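User
New here, help please:
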Amino acid sequence: MVPMRDAFGTHRHLNPNASLADPLSEGAHRMRIVHDPAANPMSCSTFHQKGTIMAVKQEKVRPQEKANPATPAGLRKVQFGAIAKPKQDSRSSYPVLPDPQGRYAAIAARIIERSVQVEALAGALDVDKAELKTLATPFYFTHASGKLDVPSSVGVHCSNGEVLITFQNRYGKLDSEEPLLPILGEQTGRFFRQAFTLEIAGDKLPAEQVQPLLDELQGLFAKYQASEAFKVKEGIKPVPDFHTLRHTALSPEQNLAVDQVCPIIAMVKAKAQS
């Protein structure tokens, strides 16, 4: 028997002939070998194999460490212990519309069925339209070259009728003129110009300062003969917390009446069962 001091300062008698395969044999110990350079180098356990004794590092786990995993160095976290945490649920729970006669279910079934068909057709239709537009664009520019009166569309005849590819006076916005310079060079400024829009979020202005500010802005634009550029779009919209406040401050009848005047925007999304 070989005496050895364990991590708690007491002596144990170790049997060199004990086998790890038999947890009930004399001198056998349950152990966990951990490679942790930051652990206490003085903490060790014993390993028995064919009469030899090896000192190996042993992780000392305190009760609180089992409940609270160690956090990385440099990251300070508050431990909440037994305080209940909300369960993560990937699926939201919604109230179900009562449907004793199955009328709404029939409508929902049609929506799902037709949505699948429409999505498939819409995807195929978009691909066909984009391909036809790409094929027709070279002809459009070639046919319109040198003309002042340019037709707005190019027609494609088929057995079922005619498809028109209409080239509208609408263009996307570029972030910079740099892609145009290699093509147009010094003429870039002849065909393109900088455009911008300044917006003022009126509902974010201090209420008591709105009118003086607008008066000064009008005077400023008039000073520089730019009154035509000063535009305003006016409207009435709900306050920021109306969407939640309406359910506690208004009755269902009042909400329905308000909805007739200011309808809530609702989306109907189809979710087919997989």
The two ends are 67 Å apart (CA to CA). The longest strand covers residues 44-49. Confidence is low (pLDDT under 50) at residues 4-11, 18-53.
